[in-house]
């Protein structure tokens, strides 16, 4: 069983057994047919993934690693808020007629800010600090920008990352760790999707800064299973898991802006059957 499967199964069991239902509450999301999308939720879930041990991809069903990487690069590298720059259709429901999702995600990553060292956006600020001041405790991004919330079609869910570098005893290279803060998580649709995205981001940043990938700590405020997903999750967590596949990042790339989704690969990725047509609450 991959470590990611174990964490996923335990989290889902905990939500189903100890979570609270939002049924009857005034909830925002709805299904395609207009009915309210209620959830079973657990507040304050924290999951830790040690990337030096294993790549945290689930095997119970296939996680679309290349699509997930592409969305992460859309935000962190292309810094785009337009679905025309994205190779999947996962954001279509939240885009306007021009393809924009408003001042969310990639838009915020591309905004330049004045720092003592010059004008930079948040991604370049992180890379600058990792290279020049790796032991800083101030290396973080935040895209939950209150002044722009009214111009976002969906508020950022995974909204902040804090990077932290450690010098492990006896190790040649520094270790790059990160905490991903997420205010809201649709566990079936996007939990492992988000986890692999930020695992890939840590691997990429570590490589371009000549560090090792360390831990990803995923802090989720509201971890929920939507009502229509409950039978799917119950079936999923009963399945037989497989060992984690080997993860491979093209070692030639030394500039974060040169990575493409094709530089990311998993070998021997054996999984359970895909769950077709998971409905996504809007
Ligand atoms: N309710 C809800 N849940 C979410 O997870 C979510 C939103 N809304 N709104 C915005 C984005 C869109 N997200 C999504 C939506 C769909 C998939 C999805 O269907 N993934 C497929 C593969 C997609 C592909 O290959 O391109 C999968 O099997 O993982 C993933 C993330 C995450 N976010
Ligand atoms: O990367 C993402 C983006 C979105 N989600 C989910 C979490 C929620 O189910 C919805 C957003 O609804 P809110 O009412 O704004 O919380 O999207 C995710 O899990 N991961």
Automatic annotation (TrEMBL):
Residues 7-276 form the Thymidylate synthase/dCMP hydroxymethylase domain. Its EC number is 2.1.1.45. Pathway: Pyrimidine metabolism; dTTP biosynthesis. It comes from the Bacteria. (6R)-5,10-methylene-5,6,7,8-tetrahydrofolate binds at residues 186, 281. It catalyses: dUMP + (6R)-5,10-methylene-5,6,7,8-tetrahydrofolate = 7,8-dihydrofolate + dTMP. One of its GO terms (biological process) is methylation. CDD domains: TS_Pyrimidine_HMase. Coiled coil: none annotated. It is an enzyme of class 2 (transferase). InterPro entries: Thymidate_synth/dCMP_Mease, Thymidate_synth/dCMP_Mease_dom, Thymidate_synth/dCMP_Mease_sf, Thymidylate_synthase. GO terms for cellular component: cytosol. GO terms for molecular function: thymidylate synthase activity. It is found in: Cytoplasm. The active site is at 157 (nucleophile). The keyword Secreted does not apply. DUMP binds at residues 137-138, 183-186, 194, 224-226. Keywords: Cytoplasm, Methyltransferase, Nucleotide biosynthesis, Transferase. Pfam families: Thymidylat_synt. Catalyzes the reductive methylation of 2'-deoxyuridine-5'-monophosphate (dUMP) to 2'-deoxythymidine-5'-monophosphate (dTMP) while utilizing 5,10-methylenetetrahydrofolate (mTHF) as the methyl donor and reductant in the reaction, yielding dihydrofolate (DHF) as a by-product. This enzymatic reaction provides an intracellular de novo source of dTMP, an essential precursor for DNA biosynthesis. Belongs to the thymidylate synthase family. Bacterial-type ThyA subfamily. Homodimer. This is Thymidylate synthase. It comes from Parablautia muri.
């Amino acid at each position: 069983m991959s470590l990611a499967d174990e964490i996923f199964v335990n989290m889902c069991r905990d939500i189903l057994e100890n979570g609270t239902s939002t049924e009857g509450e005034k909830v925002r999301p709805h299904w395609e047919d207009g009915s309210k999308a209620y959830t079973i939720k657990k507040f304050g879930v924290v999951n830790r993934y040690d990337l030096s041990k294993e790549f945290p991809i689930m095997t119970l069903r296939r996680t679309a690693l290349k699509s997930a990487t592409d969305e992460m690069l859309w935000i962190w590298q292309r810094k785009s808020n337009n679905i025309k720059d994205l190779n999947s259709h996962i954001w279509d429901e939240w885009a306007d007629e021009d393809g924009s999702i408003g001042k969310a995600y990639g838009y915020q990553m591309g905004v330049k800010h004045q720092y003592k060292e010059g004008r930079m956006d948040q991604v370049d600020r992180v890379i600058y600090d990792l290279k020049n001041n790796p032991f800083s405790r101030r290396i973080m991004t935040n895209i939950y920008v209150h002044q722009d919330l009214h111009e976002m079609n969906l508020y950022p869910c995974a909204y902040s990352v804090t990077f932290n570098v450690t010098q492990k005893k006896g190790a040649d290279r520094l270790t790059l760790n990160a905490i991903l803060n997420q205010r809201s998580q649709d566990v079936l649709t996007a939990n492992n999707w988000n986890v692999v995205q930020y695992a890939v981001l840590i691997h990429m940043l570590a490589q371009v800064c000549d560090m090792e990938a360390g831990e990803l700590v995923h802090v989720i405020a509201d971890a929920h299973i939507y009502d229509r997903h409950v039978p799917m999750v119950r079936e999923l967590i009963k399945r037989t898991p497989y060992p984690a596949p080997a993860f491979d990042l093209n070692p030639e790339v030394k500039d974060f802006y040169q990575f493409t989704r094709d530089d990311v690969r998993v070998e021997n990725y054996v999984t359970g059957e895909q769950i077709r047509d998971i409905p996504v609450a809007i």
